[in-house]
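seq as requested:
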Amino acid sequence: MSTEANRALVRRVFEEGVSGGDMAVIDEAFSARNAYRSGGPGEVLDPPRIRRFLAGVRATLPDLHVTIDAMVAEGDLVATVETWRGTHAATGERAEGTVLHVFRFADGQVVEEWNEGWGWWERLEHVPADEAGG
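struct tokens:
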């Protein structure tokens, strides 16, 4: 895939998948062997785990919207800075945070992912996805 195609797929992940709730784009974008470099060594964050994580985020922040503030792409890498916003399901309070992602592509899918900036999310009381219909 071209750098522009990679950029377009990352944009779809945030717009259609994360903000819109269309998990089909997660299966399309992420390799089953996506190496998650921000977790433990050798951790694999495959599409089912990504979908479960996003279900939990969307249960906690049902009106979640992610804005891509900046995107840079070169070769097989795409980096984004995003603002995640939503209303906490349990408290009705607004939540917002900025996250940085770097994705590496091979054969049209994300095969490595790095991210930083989840402190805002870790401070929230999470609503279990199964209790909120997610």
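The chain has one domain: 3-122.
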